[in-house]
Amino acid sequence: EDFLLSSGKRSESYIDKYGVLSDAALLKEVSGEMVKLLHVSRKPIVLAGLELGGAMFSTAMSLQSGINTVAVRKQAKEYGTARVIEGADVQSRRIVVVEDVITTGRAVFDAVKTLRAEGAIVNDVVCMILRQDRSRQLMFDHGLRLQPLFHWEMD
Question: Which DSSP category does 95 fall into?
C-alpha cells in the first residue's frame, strides 16, 4: 500500500501512532520510556508537545514524571486565548519538545522557532519514532539534541 506522509513524501509503510496513543497500557509504557530520554537537570523544565500526537505524549509523560507541559499548536485558533502555545508560561524556562514521529523535522523547527520567540530555552527534542536519521544532523545544526525512542528508516 502507498501512503502520503505529512512531509509530502510517499511511503510503502506507515506508523499508526494512534494505535499507541489510544491504548492506555501501551501509552503508559511508551511514554514512560520517553521520560527516561529526558535530560533533566536541577533547572525546572517544561515539556512542549506538538499538536496533536506530541501533545498527547507530553501529557502522558507529564503524568508519569510530574513535569509540567504545554501544547504547541500549528497555528493560533481564532477564538479563546488565540495563542499558539497553550498552558504554562515558557519565558526563560528550559523546554524539551515532544513529538510523536519525526520525518523531516519541519514541524519541530516551526515549534522551536515559536517557543524561542516567546523566550523559551530549547535545546532538546524527544520523539517516539525518528523516520530519517538525517533529521538528527539537521536538529544538531539548529542547536538541538534529538533523542528518539525508536528509529525507522523510510523506504
Answer: E
Model-level pTM greater than 0.70? yes
Residue indicated by cell numbers 522551536: 112
Report pLDDT digits (tens) over 65-104.
999 999 999 988 888 888 999 998 999 999 999 999 998 8
Q: Any residues with CB less than 8 A from the CB of 153 and at least 6 apart, and which?
A: 131, 132, 133
- Going by C-beta distance under 8 Å and a sequence separation of 6 or more, which residues neighbour residue 33? 149
The strand pairing partners of 124, in sequence order, are 96, 145
Rounded Cα distance, 101 and 86, in Å: 21
Beta strands per DSSP E along the chain = 3-4, 10-11, 45-50, 69-72, 85-87, 94-102, 121-130, 145-151
pLDDT in tens, 121-153: 999 999 999 987 778 888 888 899 999 999 887
Cβ(132)–Cβ(154) under 8 Å? Answer: yes
Q: Which SS3 state, helix, strand or coil, does residue 26 take?
A: helix
The span from the CA of 105 to the CA of 134, in Å, is: 10
